């Protein structure tokens, strides 16, 4: 129930202590650093049970983790949880001024704050908060959850997710699953027989429109607006024999879907574990060679909507490349890029993008790299390559996905491995199409490699500066080296000179190593 434009209220009966613990586990799937949860209610209504279960749900030890009540110490921190938690109990709080001595404000920057007897904070409550009021009447337990500010939408998503799962996977246990840099959220659903599925939570985009009334960033670069893109793209790929995840159930209106679970053999994790990647990588290249030989539709009709596959046009490519100037330059230099430098940068890209227009257009998945490829050894041929995160597919040059794979931003691909797999791709394309122009493809590979590296440098800088996700900076030296490799192509000589003069390799590398 929506109480106002700023709050959302949800009421739920709790039949027993197990229901209180289950609610804590459910909320643990949605919390993040910086959140504030206030617990309100009389003695014995379940506040401490809830707080303990929430903290245990966020810790690898689970129920084995000892979580004492901080009634006397007032605060207890748990820094090794998936989301670090600071657990406060204000039952013995004498006056509000004591809160400053507990360091709540400092802890709020890098912890989830869970506060029992939150009503005693009076006017110290943050604007963005989840308040849970516990009731006990005639042995009947219930709670009222009120989401304020940013928690209003998140609490709504939590309620809708529970309703969707109750309808389509009622006997599955929900488990947190690490997501990506996007706004999408994932859970693994576990059945008693050991089978699993994935829940995708993909709310429709609500990106604010620029003050000039122009297109948003997502519109300019053709990012998926809602979950219908996943349903459409995956269905088409599967019909053509590729291993995209099957959509087992979907609600296009609310943005939830249950997907086939490909398991844990993600290419990126396999590489980190030093597993043999020769066959998985070779087959991933074969998938792209196969995609490049086919004709692909520009629209897909679903039951009630049509999903359009946009062209990866100059506006999209240039908007992405400009992320380097908008975000990476300020991070590396400490100030915004001068307009003259920005104009020079843009002008150097224009003739390069023109060279891409002779390429035959195919579906470009755009995120075809180690985090989104999963090895399926029990399948046959190229079906052993599981493909996820397909929703942003566009019609564009086939070299883009190949360079995404072979110049991975998150794992090291040796130069000789890259060249060997590139040669294998070119040989397959030549076999399929005798008139295939290998040199033209190598030109596109270098141009799109430089474009993608510039984009990724900007994205990683944005994730750090805007979203506080600083871990992506460690990948910057790898992406910078890939950029330098692509700039060595003769077609990019002018752009190479610009980078050498204004954003040289050592300056770029320093951003990722903390020396900037």
Describe the structure concisely for a colleague.
The chain is an alpha+beta fold and 516 residues long.
What topology emerges from the helices and strands here?
Blueprint: E1 7-14, H1 17-28, E2 36-40, H2 47-57, E3 75-78, E4 85-89, H3 98-102, H4 104-108, E5 112-116, E6 129-137, E7 140-148, H5 150-168, E8 173-177, E9 185-190, E10 196-201, H6 217-221, H7 228-239, E11 243-244, E12 247-251, E13 256-260, H8 267-272, H9 278-292, E14 299-301, E15 306-308, H10 314-321, H11 323-333, H12 339-355, E16 362-364, E17 373-375, E18 385-387, E19 394-396, H13 399-406, H14 415-432, H15 438-465, H16 476-487, H17 493-502, H18 505-513
Parallel strand pairs: 2-5, 2-6, 4-5, 11-18
Antiparallel strand pairs: 1-7, 3-4, 6-7, 8-9, 9-10, 10-13, 12-13, 14-15, 16-19, 17-18
Helix pairs in contact: 1-2, 9-14, 10-15, 11-15, 12-17, 13-15, 15-16, 16-18
Structure notes:
The protein has helices spanning 17-28, 47-57, 98-102, 104-108, 150-168, 217-221, 228-239, 267-272, 278-292, 314-321, 323-333, 339-355, 399-406, 415-432, 438-465, 476-487, 493-502, 505-513, and strands spanning 7-14, 36-40, 75-78, 85-89, 112-116, 129-137, 140-148, 173-177, 185-190, 196-201, 243-244, 247-251, 256-260, 299-301, 306-308, 362-364, 373-375, 385-387, 394-396. The strands form five sheets. It has a seven-stranded mixed sheet. A five-stranded antiparallel sheet has the order 8-9-10-13-12, with helices on both faces. The chain is an alpha+beta fold. It has two domains: 7-168, P-loop containing nucleotide triphosphate hydrolases (Rossmann fold); 197-513, Aminoglycoside 3'-phosphotransferase, Chain: A, domain 2, CATH 3.90.1200.10. It is globular, with a radius of gyration of 25 Å. 41% of the residues lie in helices and 18% in strands.
